[in-house]
Amino acid sequence: MEDIRNNWTKEEILEIYNKPLMELLYEAATVHRQYHDPNTVQVSTLLSVKTGGCPEDCGYCPQAARYHTDIEGNDLMSVQQVKAQALRAKSSGSSRVCMGAAWRNVKDGPEFDQVLEMVRTINKLDMEVCCTLGMVTENQAKRLAEAGLYAYNHNLDTSEEYYKEVISTRGYEDRLETIENVRKTNVTVCSGGIIGMGESVEDRAGMLVALSTLSPQPESVPINALVAVEGTPMEDEKPVEIWEMIRMVATTRIVMPKTQVRLSAGRTEMTREGQAMCFFAGANSIFAGDKLLTTPNPDVNEDMEMFNQLGLEPQKAFVKAPQPETVEAADSQYASLGEKPKWTRPSHTIERNEKAKQKAVLTPKK
Ligand code: SF4
Fold it and tell me: Which tens digit of pLDDT belongs to each residue from 23-56?
């Protein structure tokens, strides 16, 4: 098996992305077979453990408090609620639970302690546990690892250049620093992005350069198609064409051969044929459940029917990396440091974000 390359250039990636489609598919499917069982697809369940009210201004996100969307905010779920949902997910074929909290960054304190308890609880159910909680410090990443976290998700979203057109409340370097902090532990890294936000093909390639030149590359890369939600700055973006999704998945597969490439948001807009082509192009992970944090997702039964039709099997837990051990809170080596890290606040103006914010001020929430 050839070595993984960590020196991809934007030009090389663009050349792959723009190949004639049949050639691109053949190449991606060939790489896929060298590193993975093509009939196995990992199934994750995404659980929003704390919804809405986020102080960030991500232009695609209905959970940002400054935009008015139909999202109903919720406080942090209890450990028991999370356990019940995880058991449900397990019985419908999920091997991983990914818990999302609409936070800018993790803050030491009772809420983080509660999330650590959720991690312990799910790991003890013999499921892979992933969290997406915003920026984390090294000590926080170590505490998550000690609790039994399997993966941490922190998306780069897009290229460094286009990021400035999407978010003004934090910088790209914060994303990279969080990934570095996670890499100081045995927790695997999940990081990907979104297409269809008005970015160019060069930006898509730029994001893949940023991800594929990480060493090691992320173990998991979600590729999302924007779900344009009314009230967000991106509400008028046109849906992503299936061909763009297939090209993005295939290119990701070629430049990051060992990674699990995940079909994420936007799957409700895809036909089964379209999804099948994405699996052929190297996608080998999906999010299951009828909601993806706050946007719609195909129903679990529909997904299992699709798996039967295509002869796909859900991947078992811990086949790519061993199950972490859980250390109980009382035996922890890492104290809560009460850190107040200075994550960046670029605060430049993004016109469409400003407009959506103004619109929200003028049209109060129902
Ligand atoms: S994507 Fe995350 S950080 Fe950005 S507004 Fe939404 S919840 Fe907040």
Answer: 999 999 999 999 999 999 999 999 999 998 888 8
Residue type, 314: P
Pocket test for ligand 1, best of 49, 51, 61 (most atoms within 8 A of CB): 61
For helices 10-17 and 242-255, angle between their N-to-C axes, nearest 10 degrees? 130
Structure confidence at residue 342 (pLDDT): 81
Nearest to 90 by CA among 117, 129, 120: 129
In the chain, what are the domains?
10-316 (3.20.20.70)
Please identify, by atom number, the ligand 1 atom nearest to the C-alpha of residue 134: 3
Q: Which of 58, 154, 158 to mutate to test the pocket of ligand 1 (most atoms within 8 A of CB)?
A: 58
Tens-place pLDDT, residues 279-330: 999 999 998 865 655 666 667 788 889 999 999 999 999 999 999 999 999 9
Tokens representing 225? Answer: 């198609």
Q: Which residue's C-alpha comes closest to atom 7 of ligand 1? A: 102
* 64 Cβ below 6 A of ligand 1: yes
d(CA 333, CA 43): 33
